[in-house]
Amino acid sequence: MLPLLLFLVSIVLPGSLAHGPGKCVLTDTRDPAHELAPFSEAQAQIPWTSTFKDDFDVPPPPLEILSLVVSGPSSNRVDLIFFADGYVQDEREKFFEDAKRLAEDISGNQTFNTVKPLMNFWAAFTPSKESGVGVGGKPKNTAFGLYRDGTELRGVYYAKPAVAAAACSSLGDQCDYPILLGNDPLYGGLGGRFTVITPSIANGALILRHELGHSIINVGEEYDGGYAYFGSNSYNNLSKAVPWAQWLTDPDPTHVRVERAVMPMQAYAWTLLNTSTPWSVKFDSSGAYARHLVRFSVSGLPEAADLRVELDGEDLGWTPRADIGLDRYHYDVHRDGGLSAGEHTLSFTLLNGAREPEAQMCSAEILEFGDESEFVATPGHYSLYPTFSLDNQTTYRPTNEDCLMRQVTTPNFCKACIEGLWLALLRNVSLIDGIDASCVGSAADEDLTKLTLRLVPLAQFRAAAVAGLSESYTVTWRKDGQVIGKFTNSTEAEVGSGQYTIEVQYATNEVRVDRDDRLKAQVQYTVDGGCTKS
Ligand SMILES: *[C@@H]1O[C@H](CO)[C@@H](O)[C@H](O)[C@H]1NC(C)=O
Ligand SMILES: *[C@@H]1O[C@H](CO)[C@@H](O)[C@H](O)[C@H]1NC(C)=O
Ligand SMILES: *[C@@H]1O[C@H](CO)[C@@H](O)[C@H](O)[C@H]1NC(C)=O
Ligand SMILES: *[C@@H]1O[C@H](CO)[C@@H](O)[C@H](O)[C@H]1NC(C)=O
Ligand SMILES: *[C@@H]1O[C@H](CO)[C@@H](O)[C@H](O)[C@H]1NC(C)=O
Ligand SMILES: *[C@@H]1O[C@H](CO)[C@@H](O)[C@H](O)[C@H]1NC(C)=O
């Protein structure tokens, strides 16, 4: 369980304002809905429940629960639940559809698909008095009081943490990861104990899966310009063992190398654009790299004719994502050829005055790379890729752009994160759901008991096979310590009196190192005779 305190900490972090030009109301240096979770390992240790039960004592709101994607009993699953905010009674159907779309997007064929049998997704409807989320720091009359600070597309906060907490605790083990879904079509959210998202078509699922990466796997960022880098996807001391050594494309430890790249500029501008003066930034290049990338995000700009993005006066040919409307989106312009040594200028010129005051420059970054022999940009390559923090400190990540913890437009985790995901979920889920016993007819002079093992539906029990996934269960039965070979790999056994131990070992190509034996489970059962079929 992660602390609510985390959220409180998130909006008062030091270093605020330092980056944001005047227009930005938020005091957080990071993009709260892209880099929103203010995670640190220290913070994650604080038990959240103890901090606020005493402070607030409110009853839970009415909740109508619908199952979205359910794989087993909540007592042995990790349960995610969407709560409705800003959906009035007439929008009940819309809420269930939005929640279902998001749950299916992140578990249907990607992201959490392979681990779906360890998870449940639910939707809990509470009618709000008003529709939508508040703006200008002022919540509407809604279930959890969601609001934006200004009108800009960034953080979405909640005014009623106690109501959210009461809603979640009233559901017991059905609410491991609460998600507050705010009824607004555009980008926005927040990480922490309560993940806040919107059903934005372009961004809702993308923010959700990134935030769940933080809260479930307990990993930090992989993108540049953040400050929280930790967990199974992060490495910062080249004289220590590489945490994802088991995934390196070239496993020879003497071949481990840092891919060659540098970040000469990054800015979280969060600035409204105007037609009188372009937003621009100058930076220096060493002239020592073969390729470069211009990465940025903008919102409020639905047409290509609304904006011109230039590097040293050269039009980069920006076109918005199809159907993006006023929503925020991320763009990459990869350019072969190095930047020359010396000063360069990146500029964003608003061409259409009608887009003021919605047009927003959110973030911009320049990266320079060596050629393919110095920096392998190819997807699927695992090595040490440098990531540059807000303060330009270097840590390393496993892949170039394979992971949604780096590139939010990517729908999947890298292998190091997926392995971490399995291990994190299996901390809270046993591979054995239970064991049932029933009497069968007598054999010789003893009545037999039929033991049936109920396993979490992985491997041969999976509802639908997943392409590229190879997995298996190995089941070993022991009676009074001795292996009963004929029952190996069976989930059923007809046995006489005795003490039985059944051990289950799961294997998947998505987990290569399992130091704590999380992929193993064991159950004991004593059959004490007297099993007579009536
Ligand atoms: C998953 O399904 C969605 C929606 O049908 C589709 O856009 C996406 O490309 C699919 N992803 C994969 C990895 O097949
Ligand atoms: C890096 O790891 C080495 C070996 O464990 C250790 O001696 C050194 O102090 C570490 N450096 C930093 C900066 O933590
Ligand atoms: C980060 O540090 C590198 C190496 O010192 C330097 O070349 C680069 O310009 C710096 N980037 C920023 C944004 O300060
Ligand atoms: C227009 O935008 C530029 C660049 O962000 C900024 O410096 C300037 O203050 C803005 N002008 C007005 C009138 O808002
Ligand atoms: C998962 O297990 C860990 C360790 O046993 C525990 O601290 C945590 O509260 C559990 N989380 C959930 C969601 O049950
Ligand atoms: C049991 O299943 C495992 C995993 O598929 C397999 O490796 C093993 O050979 C099987 N054992 C027997 C005795 O069939």
Automatic annotation (TrEMBL):
- InterPro entries, per database record: MetalloPept_cat_dom_sf (IPR024079), Peptidase_M64_IgA (IPR019026)
Q: Name one GO molecular function term.
A: metallopeptidase activity
Keywords associated with the record? Signal
Q: What is this protein called?
A: IgA peptidase M64-domain-containing protein
- Note whether Signal occurs among the keywords: yes
The residue range of the signal peptide is 1-18
Q: Which Pfam families match?
A: Peptidase_M64 (PF09471)
Annotated Gene3D superfamilies: Collagenase (Catalytic Domain)
Superkingdom per UniProt: Eukaryota
